[in-house]
Amino acid sequence: MDAGVPEVDNAAIVLYRWILVQGGLSSSTVARAAAETGLTEEECRAAVATLTGTCLVQADGEGWQAVSPQAAGARLLSEPEAALRAQEEMLRARRDELQRRRDALTGLIPVYLQARQHSFPQGTIDHLPDQFAVRALLTDVIDSCRAEVLVSKHGGSFPQAALREALPRDLALLERGIRMCSLYQHATRFDPATRAHAERLVAAGAEIRTLPEALPQMIIVDRELGFLPSRSGGALLIREPDLLGYLLDVFHRDWEYATPFATGPQAAHDISETVKESILTLLAKGLKDDSIARRLGISLRTCRRHVAELLIALGANSRFQAGVIAQQQGLAGTRGPIQEQAASAPSAPSTSARRPTRLPDPTGPDSPLRCVGCGAPLPVAVGRRLKQGRPARHCSASCRARAYRARRKPGAGGNGPGTGT
Question: I need a labelling partner for 197 at 20 to 30 A (CA). Which of 95, 160, 174, 304 fits?
Answer without folding.
Answer: 304
